[in-house]
Structures are given as structure tokens and as C-alpha cells.
Amino acid sequence: MTVIARAAEITRRYGDALALDRVTLDIRAGEIVGLLGPNGAGKSTLINLFVGLRRPTSGTVTLFGGSPQDPAMRRRIGMTPQETGLPETLRVGEIIDFVSAHFPEPCDKDELLARFGLSDLIKRQVGGLSGGQKRRLAVALAFTGNPELVFLDEPTTGLDVESRRSLWDGIASFHEEGGTVLVTSHYIEEIEALARRVVVVGHGRVLADDTMESVRGIVGVRRVSFTADLPDPEGLPGVLGAERAGDGRISLVTTDPDRLVVELVTGGTPFTGLEIKPTTLEEAFLAITSKEAAHV
Ligand SMILES: Nc1ncnc2c1ncn2[C@@H]1O[C@H](COP(=O)(O)OP(=O)(O)OP(=O)(O)O)[C@@H](O)[C@H]1O
């Protein structure tokens, strides 16, 4: 697949703070890339570099083979930043007309409104919209110019389940028609719903760049639970997190379930009800970031 955006060995500093540390990332035509990482990992900085709002301290960013600073390249992208302020007195339809006017071939207004569940709101003033409706409008604006590539920075933060699903549908239908998307989120299920490729960032570095299944596999994290009278379960092999229920049941997230069970048996502590289960992506993700933190 053709690479349409590339960050090559990007470092970005804000004064003494290192926001991105030698990050390399290719975005290929037609994919949805999910960018996952804790607060301050560098996700917004990476987006701002791709869309030309900031420049790297070192390294290069290319957009459609050119520079993100070139308006001709930027006209081919769309973006929804984390926070948007829209003029309160304008109507939904007027805002879409205004943004459309900046692009040579804007998309069909009615189609755009329908795609993001805004058709009934066309005459409403922005100031009178709910938080979820405003957010849907802000995301819809990223698609107004018929972009090839869209950057969405936490598109559904703060939305209820129904609004989130409606936004996901809009994003998915853009992708089905061949569009490319980079989406950041704190919601694991959002990345799972939208993207097959997941890039995990932490401390300004790419920690994993793979399919959802492989990201889980990379860390090989499992949840091991059993009932026992064990004073120090945290000391068992590979344990990243431990929870103890009132009934004596212990639940451990571990990178090495096999060795943990061997040690449990050889340690001679009686236990019952042993269960080993795959973890959620969130647990896997926390494991990667905490392992990385242990290295710095
Ligand atoms: N304008 C700025 N001036 C100084 N430091 C900044 C600036 N913008 C970002 N940073 C720092 O760079 C690092 C990365 O921030 P960034 O906003 O890219 O992270 P993020 O992954 O998008 O976080 P969040 O999920 O909270 O939005 C953080 O340590 C942040 O404090």
C-alpha cells in the first residue's frame, strides 16, 4: 500500500520537555490507524506535526510526498483537534458552508449531515447544540473538504454511547469508501471498533505498532486468578498488577503465566479454582507502558 504520510525519526521538544523521541511512523492509503497512549504520551504532538501546525525539532515529516507546510498538501487532509471552539451564533448549515468554501471539491452537504446524524440540526445555532451534537459537528467538519486522510484527536471523548456509535459509523463509512484515518483515543474499545492497526505510544516513543491481536501477543499478558491464603502474590513471576477480593480470591495480571503457576505449585501454598484468561487490550496496554516505564 502506498505511504501517504510519513514521520521519520521525529524528535520534538518543548523547551526541556521531550514530547517525541525518534518516532518513525508510516500511514498507508486506505488504513485506519489507532493511536493509543496515556496522557502526555505525545499523540497530539504527532498529529500536529503531520498536519503542519508544528515542526519537528529534528527528523522529517512528509504528507503526500510533500511538506505538511504546503497548503496544496494540507487541502487533502481533514482534522478534528481535541478541543474545538465554533462560533455560537452560526447555524450548523452555515458553518459547513463556510468550511466547504475553503476547498476546491467539498463533499455533498446533505450526505455529510446524514453521515454524522446532523440532518435534523441544519438550521440550529451552534450555541443551542448539546455537547455531543457539537462534537459530531466538529468531527464532520474534518470531512467537509473531501479529504484523503483524516486526523481525529480523541473524537468521542465525553460523548454518550449512542453519540459515539453514530460517530464511529460516520468514520467507518468514510473508510469503506477508501479514506485513510489516524485516530487517537483513550477508549480501548474505540480503537478496537475502528482500527485493525494499533500504534501504542508512551513517553514519546512508539512502543508497539501492529495488529490488535499482535499487540496483545507482544506482551503475552494473562490474568491468573485463584483462591489462596497467600501474603505476597505481587512477588510471583511477571506480576504487573494484583487484586484481592474479600472472599480471598486473588487476581493477577502477569507476563509469565506458566512460570507463575509452576512457582505457585512448588511454593506449596494450597489454592483452588485456578483460572487463566486472556486480558483486555487495556490491560495489555498498561503492561506495555509500565514495562517501558521500568526501563527509563
Ligand atoms: N505547547 C507545549 N508546551 C510545552 N509542553 C508541551 C506543549 N504541548 C505538549 N507538551 C508536552 O509534551 C508532551 C506530549 O504532549 P501531547 O499533548 O502530545 O500528549 P498526548 O499524548 O496528546 O496527551 P493527551 O492524551 O493528554 O492529550 C507532554 O509532556 C506535554 O506536557
Task: Provide the descriptors you would attach to this structure in a database record.
single chain, 296 residues, alpha/beta, Rossmann fold, Alpha-Beta Plaits, 2 domains, 6-stranded mixed sheet, 4-stranded antiparallel sheet, 10 helices, 30% strand, binds adenosine-5'-triphosphate, antibiotic resistance, P-loop_NTPase
Question: How many discrete structural domains?
Answer: 2
Roughly what percent helix?
25-40%
Report the uncertain regions.
none
Tell me the strand order in the biggest sheet.
Answer: 5-6-7-3-8-9
CATH superfamily of the largest domain: P-loop containing nucleotide triphosphate hydrolases
Membrane topology: Peripheral membrane protein
Organism: Nonomuraea longispora
GO molecular function, one term: ATP binding
Main location: membrane
